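Go through this:
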Amino acid sequence: MVIQHMGFVEWTAFSRRACSPRRSATPRGGQARRLNDSRFRPAPRPRSSAPGAFTIVELLVVVAIIGILISLLLPAVQAAREAARQLQCSNNLRQLALACHSYENANGGLPLLYASSIQLGWMTQIMPYFEQGNLSQQYNFKQPWFDASNAAVVAKRISVFECPSSPVQHVYTATDHDFTGQSANPMTTYTVASTDYFAISGASSSTTVTAPSTVQSGYLSVYPNASSQMDLSGTFGPQSTTPVSRRLADVTDGLSKTLMISEMSGRPWLFIADGRQLAANDFPSYVTASSEDATDNIPLNYGGGAWAHNNNFNLRTWSSDGTVRAGPSVINCSNYSAVYSFHTHGAFAAFADGSVHLLDREMSPAVFFALVTARGGEVVDSGGYQ
């Protein structure tokens, strides 16, 4: 046999080839069937796609939640802003009161409220005492504030004269032909910057009953047994064409019990209770006339709130809605020669000792007038201010 003649090496190679399984180039029959059968194929991997958009219901829910959050947060934000504005307002009044103290120390008395023919305002006098000395040097003290030589100065806004809660613009133009002949070059139509503060000159001594009111509006309506000769002046002294500068030591009712400066915000336009502004056609009867330009809705009240004018007033009582000058209220009723602000709970006032307090809008006329007078001798109830 051929095998018998094969050597060891050849036999080994032969046996390896004989025993090795033959590899087929094509899959075996069963395997081929499985590969061609869709049941045995792996499921195709799904294509990735972008996430689906919100449904209308989901969108409405999100909008509703955002609306609820805004409704909860908005009052808190507004309250925080008003608190900041009130703080700034009280700081303004404190600066003005301290400037008056500094003026008294330097000049031997408080600034005059009615400086005769030149009609010098008390705010103009104290400007050097709250870092407005440069502006003061530009003012012509030999002429009234409405003279053309003072036009540029009186049109300047001064931040300490303005309450940040006031919604009005603080530069305005008005007309008053009564200024004719009262200065070297009077401006009958003038542009000026306004203030939200005023000096309290005292309590009104008026005993007149003016329709539609049926009661008096002055001090005697609250203290009917008081003498008609009683000194009803405030910290600065009485209104007079021949004023005398008063010292703080003359305030016998006590500096911490006597008002000095307060708010009369919104001028020159007329506002009554609840921040309601009135047009000229709706002016109450206590407004004698409007500005000679009937379209500006400005009451013809001397000075119209310009910071440079005399800007001091005797105070009265009011109806609660501010339409009648006489009644049970005194705070935030009308800004026509009265304490008025755009703060919700009352108006700020600087006392003669330099402290600042919020006068409650529900303050009684008795407490109010006791705080207004500097030498009245009333016993002041601490209720009504804080």
In short: The CA atoms of residues 231 and 376 lie 6 Å apart.
